[in-house]
Amino acid sequence: MGAEDVATAIRRMEIRGAAEIARKSAEALKQEALEFHGNDLNEFRRYLDAGRETLLSSRPTAVSLWNGVQSVFKNTSEAKEVEELRRLVIKNADDFILRSKEAVEIIGRFGARRIRDGDKILTHCNSKAALAVIIQAHKEGKHIEVFATESRPWRQGLLTIKDLGKEGIGTTLIVDSAARWLMKRIDAVVVGADTVCSNGAVVNKIGTSQIALSAHEARVPVMVCAETFKFSTRTMYGELVEIEERESEEVVRPGEVPPGTKVLNPVFDATPPEYIDAIITEAGVISPYAAYEIIVKELGQGSLFGSQEGKGR
Ligand code: RUB
Questions:
Q1: pLDDT of 34-65, one tens digit each?
Q2: Percentage of residues in the chain with pLDDT exceeding 90?
Q3: In terms of Cα–Cα distance, which of 140, 281, 265, 128 is closest to 200?
Q4: H or E segment at 268?
Q5: Is 125 a residue of the active site?
Q6: Which burial class, exposed, middle or buried, applies to 297 when counting CB atoms under 10 A from its CB (0-12, 13-18, 19+)?
Q7: In the predicted model, is pLDDT for residue 310 greater than 60?
Q8: Strand 278-281 to strand 222-225: parallel, antiparallel, or no bridges (unpaired)?
Q9: Which among 2, 123, 196, 238 is least buried, having the fewest CB atoms inside 10 angstroms?
């Protein structure tokens, strides 16, 4: 699929989850590079830039999309002719996809060490990184019990139940509003991230911050599983993370509420670092307060996920 099709699928939530939208976007740019005919380098650059803009405009919150797309353009300003640029784009896209998959595996192994035999785990939405931890703990023979929130309005919790079911992990579904009631029975909260900010705040599916607040109140540790490309260089330069708001039809069906009723549908929220015990990355398990260091080390100039063109936007 090219950039236009992938952007449409992302908008429609057919492709979703922060890592997957990044991978599919990198793949789309590779496809665009493969399909370009012509010998004009500047025309090729404009064509790729158009693809990049189309993809970046598909969803605003997850910085993984930005980092994934930008990593495809790494060192491309040095290319002198079309074939060289094509090769670079393909290589960068392949590298990003491979490294991002490896990152999930590593996070699974690191995170599983924090899960004890007999733990009752609560997860929210459908995060492949969070599920990697749970699945790895299960594979290591730990007897765990998992609870999944429904995650209204898209009900990604049902995907979580399916994903865990395939691994032989029985999971109990709860409605989102049952999280605090359940918390006294929970040993660990394990969630993913769309964006980790330089101050350690984590942006993830709406409701994550309420769950983290209840966990904090009940002294239950909150573990965020996030590949380093979910960290945002842009927040280091003062930029705020845009919280996506989607259509009211995702929350209520037409005719369900009187005409003129306002419906708000923010789909992500920010959890402050004081409610997070650890962020599990492929570069190590860190305190949320170390987010800045990850940004500097893992996303700086010359790193795989970093991009010399990302700054200042
Ligand atoms: C998905 C969501 C996930 C993160 C991390 O929201 O909030 O927790 O994206 O997922 P949506 P992953 O369904 O709206 O995309 O670990 O798979 O990258």
A1: 999 999 999 999 999 999 999 999 999 999 99
A2: 94
A3: 281
A4: strand 268-271
A5: yes
A6: middle
A7: no
A8: parallel
A9: 238
- Within 187-286, residue ranges assigned H as helices are 208-217, 233-236
The b-or-e profile of 114-124 (16+ CB within 10 A means b, else e) is: bbeeebebbbb
288 preceded by cis ω (within 30°)? no
DSSP alpha helices (H): ranges in the chain? 3-11, 18-35, 41-56, 63-72, 82-112, 128-139, 156-166, 179-182, 208-217, 233-236, 291-298
**pLDDT tier at 112, thresholds 50, 70, 90:** very high
Quote the ligand 1 centre to 174 CA distance (angstroms): 18
Model confidence band, residue 303 (pLDDT cutoffs 50, 70, 90): low
pLDDT digits (tens, 9 = 90+) for 249-296: 999 998 999 999 999 999 999 999 999 999 999 999 999 999 999 999
Cβ-contact 129, 238 below 8 angstroms: no
How far apart are alpha carbons 51 and 291 in whole angstroms?
A: 30
Ligand 1: residues with CB < 6 A are: 16-20, 62, 125, 127-129, 154, 156, 192-194, 204-205, 267
Q: What is the dihedral of CA 217, 218, 224, 225, to 10 degrees?
A: -170
- Whole-number Cα distances in Å, 215 to 85, 111, 119, 189: 49, 18, 15, 7
List, in order, residues 6 or more apart from 223 with CB less than 8 Å away. Answer: 111, 114, 133, 188, 189, 190, 191, 277, 278, 279, 280
- 186, 122 in Cβ contact below 8 A? yes
Catalytic residue among 163, 176, 194, 269: 194
> What is the pLDDT, as a whole number, of residue 144?
98
Upper half-sphere CA count for residue 144 (Cβ side, 13 Å): 34
Query: Does 104 have pLDDT greater than 90?
Result: yes
